[in-house]
Inverse folding.
């Protein structure tokens, strides 16, 4: 990840959206593109979030919330991803 990259997530009970800006190293966006995003439907349980359920792009993450910290883990295209979010 390059310094200055911003990732913003927005969730409702049944949808998600994320936007990436200033991705100068093309870590999340396509090569040569510095701003990108994605959105779709989601389903959740007490321990999982499934993005794009029922589609070929379906990805399920496990999550845990402790106080104001949420930790999410899953595998996307063979790459293990773990992220920690702090409520601000």
């Amino acid at each position: 990840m390059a310094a200055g990259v911003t990732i913003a997530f927005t969730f409702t009970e049944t949808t998600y959206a994320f936007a990436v800006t200033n991705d100068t190293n093309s870590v999340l966006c396509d090569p040569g593109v510095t701003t990108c995003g994605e959105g779709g439907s989601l389903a959740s349980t007490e321990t999982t979030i499934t993005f794009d359920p029922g589609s070929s792009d379906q990805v399920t993450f496990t999550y845990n919330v402790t106080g104001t910290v949420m930790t999410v883990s899953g595998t996307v295209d063979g790459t293990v991803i773990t992220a920690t979010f702090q409520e601000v």
